Amino acid sequence: MLSGCGLESGGAVPLRVGPGSIQPSPELDGVTITVGSKDFTEQNILGYLVEFAMTAAGANVRDLTNIQGSNSLRDAQLHGQIDVAYDYTGTGWINYLGNETPVPSELGQFEAVRDADRTAHDMVWTAMAPMNNTYALVTSSRTAEETGVRTLSDYARLVATDPAAAATCVGTEFNVRQDGYPGLARKYGIDVGKVRKQIMQDPLVYQATADARQCRFGSVAATDGRIPALNLVLLQDDLAFFPKYNAALVLRADFHDAHPRIAEIMAPISALLTNEVITDLNRQVDVDGREPAEVARDWLVARGFVTAG
Predict the structure, then answer these.
(1) Helix, strand, coil proportions of the chain in percent (round to 5)?
(2) Cα–Cα distances in Å, from 287 out to 20, 80, 279?
(3) 14-55 pLDDT, tens digit each
């Protein structure tokens, strides 16, 4: 059974919003909209952005954020349990549609998944954001200075010449996904037999890489707020291996066609979600300890989309 976080701060006081630039919409007045997200910080924030925007527009919002895993969210959308959610273009193209080769450009990847998913599953992708939450490798700024490693090609050379100096922590999924370490190794000619690799849960990789004791490099999500907080350096993907993972709004076609105002309201919000913006919002949750709902609401208030209720 699907269950969500609830539009609340700390599980107690509901967070209310009023109209700002988002005004009550006759087309959405009283319409029930079920909003979903996956079960990590960025997705929760994105889900709450939709919820507060739709609430300000006059809709009745049902919260189903914090669903475990991409496939569960997708199934919930396909079966009508969720009406709208942010998802990632690379996830749609590779995980949902079964393609092996990503499209190199961000716009090209968006258009490809938009067209293919509409044809195959009657799903609408719209309001793409500039934020690109792709996989990446990071190192500490100190390690970068000591080794001179700034690109993934530099990292590959270090693995070949001094494997101990290139000890790497990887998340469990990144270790096996074809858009993770196996594909990275093929693209950059890395001998996986030489890699000093430790597999751990994703949240542990950040501090372990910053400490540079267990590992000097680590796999991360590129928009995670712990990257700047821990003074980690993103290695440049100089051979353009990693797929694009731009966030975009996803709805069933019948729901989108019945309520086109949803995408119209969300488009200017999406347009402001750069990597810098979402990384800072993620940092406020993962580093500062704030609630995702509070962070989402306060950002919308600061941008004038809604007012604090």
Answers:
(1) 45, 20, 35
(2) 29, 35, 11
(3) 588 989 999 999 999 999 999 999 999 999 999 999 999 999
